[in-house]
Amino acid sequence: MDDGKQATFGTEGELRTDETDATDDDSDSGPERDDFGDELGENETKSGVNRYVVSSLLQKAVRRSDEEVAAWAAWELVRSGYAWNFWDRINLYVVEDLRAGHEVALTVARYEELARERWSEESWRGRLCAVHAALAAARAPSSREAAHADDYFGELSEERAAAREEGREPRYDHPVDELEPGGKYDAVFDQHTYEGKRLGRDGAFFRTHGGRVGPEGEPELSRQWRIRSMRLEDRDYTEDELVRAVEPIDPDEKWPDTDATDREE
After folding, report:
1. From CA 37, how far away is CA 133, in angstroms rounded?
2. Which end of the chain is more exposed for a tag (fewer CB within 10 A), N or C?
3. Where does residue 207 rank: exposed (0-12), middle (13-18), buried (19+ CB within 10 A)?
4. How far apart are CA 65 and CA 71, in angstroms?
5. pTM: predicted TM-score of the whole model, two decimal places
6. pLDDT tens for each residue of 174-210
């Protein structure tokens, strides 16, 4: 008779069920013990190492793309009752130590969801999810660009304030210094800003300046839609304006002088 239990095979070919998987963590068998039979100390893993050290090892392994060490550290934390700590840290490492935009963030989130919501975090399946997440992070391109950006932008703002107080020029340029109409970032002052409205900049300015993308430019279908849309407006655009609206931004000149462009017409 089918009792509804799901049977699978473990890594060594052993038969596993939902019932055996749920009891992997021995949650009702008394105090947690290490590999030598001694009761676990505070913040101690089953190998006899402080969990903060294992967590630090995990982070360094992710940064250095050491898959085996990262996988072991994940397994050690989870099997020792620190699954909550592992998932908290591995998500931090995704944003602190990996290149922006990599799909590993979604991969880690999915493994965490499986471990926490479908299965038990410290079960056999939960341990596999942790190992998978650690491997995915270790295999992703490493970079501390966000952390470096946070440090630099903070110090840049402090330097700007200090220079103003001391009556000198800042050692590095700050975007705010040119964030005004007619400055380097003139294109941002369209009808969506107070300054742009004051200057009488309407949707035409946005379409021919603020809405441009780069460096690849718009895909062909998007180009067609933009040009057709502009031709259907009440305003008559020149051919130069239509071309500029879909022209890619030069990667070497991301903020062209909009006033100079207008004067050329």
Report:
1. 29
2. N
3. buried
4. 11
5. 0.75
6. 888 888 998 999 999 999 999 999 999 999 999 999 9
Helix, strand, coil percentages for the chain (3-state, nearest 5): 55, 5, 40
Domain ranges of the chain: 7-139, 179-260
- Rg from Cα positions in the chain: 28
Give the residue from 131, 49, 38 showing the smallest Cα distance to 83. 131
Q: What is the pLDDT of residues 129-167, one digit of tens each?
A: 999 999 999 999 999 999 999 999 999 999 999 999 999
Q: What stretch of H or E contains 227?
A: helix 220-231
Q: Please state the length of the chain.
A: 265
Q: How far apart are CA 246 and CA 225, in angstroms?
A: 10
The SS3 assignment for 11 reads coil
Helix crossing, 239-246 with 220-231: angle to 10°? 140
Secondary structure (DSSP) of 17-32: EHHHHHTTT-TTSSS-
Q: C-alpha distances in angstroms, 67 versus 61, 124, 136, 141?
A: 7, 20, 8, 12
How high is the mean pLDDT of the chain?
86
Q: Would you call 42 helix, strand, or coil by DSSP?
A: coil
Main-chain phi, psi angles of 263, to 5 degrees: -65, -30
Q: Give how far Cα 18 sits from Cα of 11, 136, 255, Å.
A: 15, 26, 59
